[in-house]
Design goal:
- The protein contains three helices and eight strands, in the order H-H-E-E-E-E-H-E-E-E-E.
- It has 142 residues and is of the alpha+beta class.
- Strands 1-2-3-4-8-7-6-5 form an eight-stranded antiparallel sheet.
């Protein structure tokens, strides 16, 4: 009897692990859909420049930009190997990339650059002096 119940529990766990996880689709997921997936945000930021733009902030400083009720971009900090620009150059090796110098904003201490892979909608913001990635940005793509 113990073997049967253990077997049933293992099957349930295996099927739950194999269940597809919902992911944010930039340009398609709504604000309500994001909240349904990730829960209530820790806070909401409202940039002054545009009234239809807001940013929902989640744990570990993960942010989602909302425009006209759609999630249009996501921002997060790099983890592990993602902090190295070399990692991203290798990851983007089969992708048309572009480099761009970003304008220095008042809240940023140093100038930053962006390495972008158009095909995937992923770009990384990095310090050109150290080649250390500070943020990863994901947006709707082709």
């Amino acid at each position: 009897m113990y073997f049967k119940s253990s077997f049933v529990v293992l099957i349930v766990l295996a099927s739950a692990c194999g269940a597809p996880k919902q992911s944010v689709q930039f340009g398609k997921t709504t604000k309500a859909g994001l909240i349904e997936m990730k829960g209530e945000p820790e806070s909401t930021e409202k940039p002054v420049a545009k009234s239809d733009l807001s940013v929902l902030v989640y744990e570990e400083d993960q942010k989602f930009q909302i425009e006209n009720d759609l999630v249009v971009a996501g921002f997060r900090k790099p983890v592990n190997d993602e902090t190295s620009l070399l990692y991203w150059r290798h990851k983007f090796k089969n992708c048309q990339t572009s480099f761009q110098e970003l304008k220095k904003l008042d809240n940023h201490l140093r100038p930053e650059k962006e390495l972008k892979c158009e095909k995937t909608g992923v770009s990384v913001i990095y310090d050109p002096n150290s080649d250390q990635v500070t943020r990863i940005v994901e947006q709707a793509h082709e």
